[in-house]
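Comment on this:
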Amino acid sequence: MKKVIAISSSGRQKNTYQLIQSAAPLLKEAGISLQIIHLSNYLIQDCKGCEACILSDRCPIKDDVIGILEKLGQADGIILTSPVYMAGVSGQLKRFIDRTCKWYHRPELVKKPVLLMTTTAGGYADEVLDYMEKVATFWGMHLCGRVKRNVKTWDEAVSRKELKFFIKAVEEGEETEWIPTKDQVIAFQVQKTLAMNILPRDRKYWIEHGYDVQVYYEENDVPFYLKWMGNSFYSFFSRIIKKKSS
């Protein structure tokens, strides 16, 4: 059975949590199990900015983050959620995301399907979804949908239509085909440029995975104009870095 893990980042397990739960019946119908990780139930300390995870692949902080990251790596799909707090994501989620800094340098969730969810009593739902989408892009994930609810729609369960592409991607795994957006290609090229020109550990990782010669993690379906744009951006940005370091 395929397994999906949902990250719940609200301390009170109310509207956003209920939205996650509403997806469970349709996932079960598709033969997919759902496990919800409530970040508030785990010990997650602030990132110290020591860069140990980037430089040595080890985090000196002793808490529950490593265990959560391992679970995400083993999942067939991820539902990333947050309520809107002060026009942004919850503090629990931001603290957790900060601890995934290494995944910006060496992405470990490449091609894994992700569904984004948020609820709000006011506005800024799109801004929160945009931020989570950016983070998921840095992690190398395959974006399969965005779900949002407000005070007028809190009682609406996640629909079959909203879950359609996510379920399909979870079922097909890495065989799923998708065309990256311009922003995703640019983000990839920024990460690749830094990896290939700054840290030897990053460079080794990207070469071993073959990302150093690609315009995106999966480039078979990337349109020609995006390939041209990606390669041009990489060449330009690399020249700037080499010029500044010389």
